[in-house]
Amino acid sequence: MSSKLLIVDDDTTLLRFLRDYLIEDGFEVVTAERGQKALRIFFQERPDLAILDVMMPGMDGWELTARLRELADVPVILLTAKTSEGDKLRGFRLGVDDYVTKPFSLAELGARVRAVLARSRALTQGAVLQAGRLTMDVRKREVRLGPGLVELTPTEFRLLEALMQRAGEAISQEDLIQRVWGDHQLEGSSGLRRYIWLLRKKIEDDSSSPVHLRTIRGYGYRLEI
């Protein structure tokens, strides 16, 4: 069965080119020119991935991403002319899975879509993971610390899953970046450190003195069992 994509862009000419190319590339595609219409279509169609333009009138790509994140953990790719680190960090804090910077080739977009879908499917195929008091149910997208539910963003979830899959082992920064952001990584070590800090605030009793998510100086991180 082909994956269903939702594409949202107020440029109707570009929207038509993207739709036609991705249908030819084997995807099922639904489209919208505005954020509010995109939300209605999302409820109706339940796409496997959303491709959103950042700069749109009314509800822009940032707000639309936040609204979609309230509804489901659908993978999101942003189309943007913005390339600053601040914009990228903003997107990843919202749980954006990848960026495609304008101008781009249709072949590049197709490759990015397939890579994000592959990572998303891999996340849903694991068993329940356990590390100390932490329990992760990948299929339910649920994490508990003892009996309490831990609310995580999609990016935080991917990072914690990578750590829990190899709990007790030292994992290099490079391995974690590849696991969480894939070949089209935009974060680098500074972004990884930020997400480690965010995770610690949610799973440590004292995030300033972590005992579970440990730093391996000059190498990476280890999740203690």
Strand content: 15-25%
Strand order of the largest sheet: 2-1-3-4-5
- Main beta-sheet annotation: 5 strands, parallel
What class, by secondary structure content?
Answer: alpha/beta
Annotated CATH homologous superfamily of the largest domain: Response regulator
CATH architecture of the largest domain: 3-Layer(aba) Sandwich
Explain how this protein is built.
It is a single chain. With 225 residues, the protein is an alpha/beta fold. The chain has two domains: 4-123, Response regulator (Rossmann fold); 128-223, Arc Repressor Mutant, subunit A (Orthogonal Bundle), CATH 1.10.10.10. It has helices at residues 12-24, 35-45, 61-71, 85-93, 106-123, 154-165, 173-181, 188-203; strands at 4-8, 28-32, 49-53, 76-80, 98-101, 128-131, 134-137, 142-145, 148-150, 170-172, 213-216, 220-223. It has a five-stranded parallel sheet, with helices on both faces. A four-stranded antiparallel sheet has the order 6-7-8-9, with helices on one face. Strand 1, helix 1 and strand 2 form a beta-alpha-beta unit. Helix 2 (35-45) packs parallel to helix 3, helix 6 (154-165) packs across helix 7 and helix 6 (154-165) crosses helix 8. The radius of gyration is 18 Å and the shape is elongated. The model has no long low-confidence stretch (mean pLDDT 86).
Please sum up the structure shown:
This protein is α/β, with parallel strands linked by helices. The chain has helices spanning about 10-25, 35-45, 60-70, 85-95, 105-125, 155-165, 175-180, 190-205; strands spanning about 5-10, 30, 50-55, 75-80, 100, 130, 135, 140-145, 150, 170, 215, 220-225. The protein has a 5-stranded parallel β-sheet with strand order 2-1-3-4-5, sandwiched between helices.
